[in-house]
Design goal:
The complex is a heterodimer. Chain A is mainly beta. In chain A, 0% of the residues lie in helices and 43% in strands. Classes of the chains: A mainly beta, B alpha/beta.
Amino acid sequence: MSEEEKKMIGFKCKKCSRINYPKRARCLSCKGMEFEEVELGKECELVTYTQVYNPPAGYKGDPPLMLGIVKFPNGVLAMGQLAIDHPKDLKLSAKLRPIWGMLREIGGKEVFGFKFELAKKEQTSKLK
Amino acid sequence: MREVTIMGCGMTKFARPLPGSLMDIASEASLKAIEDAGAGDRDFDAVYFASMACGEFAHQTAAATALVDELALIPAPTHRIENGPASGASAIRDAFFGIASGMYDLVLVTGAEKMSTVSGAVATDLISTMLHHEAEYLHGATLPSFAAMLTRLYMKRYGLTENQLAAVAVKNHENGSKNPYAQLSHKKCTIEGVKDSIMIADPIRMYHCCPVSDGGASLVICSAEKARELGIKKPLIKIAGLGQATDAHTLQEREDPAVLKSVQLASQQAFKMAGLEPKDIDVAEVHDAFEILEIVESEDAGFFPKGEGGKAAEEGKTALDGELPINPSGGLKSRGHALGATGLAQAVELVWQLRGEAGERQVKDAKNAYALNFGGFGDNSVVTVLRRTD
């Protein structure tokens, strides 16, 4: 699967329908153990964010490191890095979309995962 | 269950760095508590040692065994208790169960951390390992980033102002300036000074955050029968209530990310066990690793209505002479936050307050005290209620 085709996946409990993200051994709501993989969505909304001027060891970008919590249309919330260059006008309801990229290094190894960029991209991502 | 009493307490000054090794710090705090309890040459039935990350920071594991050896308390059973930054309160809780069950009569509970061994970026990373590994830590999330995201959310919802947030820091530095054990006892600050301090994770500034600290604190705990038998002269402090609760490991999966449900549940349990209500508390130490937390915790503990914690701080209700003094020690903000030692340092401060030994920062006629120690970012809260019993 190409990087563009990677989808953010949630884990829908077959017993109570709660979408768990991230996955647990048992559903947080009902302890169900069978899940169906569902795509969280191609677009989400910013709930809260920050710019971290003292990032942890292993973060390779220039500070600040932008982090945020986003909400998908199905109600699932996720935390991740924000690949946004000029956050001055960033609003708490801004529309974002998940993109795949390098997050940081841990123990000298690169760690990849989803981060979020503006859905209407007027800027180039600095974190790609 | 048997009654459980705090018989002695002691702590080191918190500092960055504090001279000496992890064991030097742990044994200094322990010996002060043993001396305070008048238990000089006594053997202990058990020793509980709290440290969040002594292996990572001080390259020392099985540190509880090392402490028993250092203090010549062999063959006392011992182990380390790790519950993130709430390790200290968890150790008190475990010691309580050991005595309340009738298994032990006399135990030592010590917490210590030596964090100054690593750089700021490494300390930030080590502390961040307490977050959800895949959903938070791997993304570069840090504890200040969570405090920042909570602050932004809370400000939008409840209209918390920058001045109200700064008022908490000003109050805690003022209290800390009266505490010789406080790491930042030499530093006071003003509202403007807080608002002008450097940005850590917007909207969180340096004066909204606790420092990185070395430090140790210790309690000698015994059954009420044992205390009577030993003829303690100081006022007896009873562990009257305990509460502990967890919440979703990830911040965003909680029922409401702006509510600390684990604090609500742990507080309700502790008040019920003590037969008290929030209004009965005379003095409190809460876990202000970030000043937003003191505000939210003071609400979720039941001391103030939701959304009014910031206003309460601004109006002086939580000052030393206010209706409910919070963090007379200076809190994590000024006293410092030596992870595994913090829960014990909170208890030491409250024992001094309840005995009337808190000097310049003494809260008048304090009889009931509340401590909240926080593991993770609100996903594991430990509450202890203490009461002077004379």
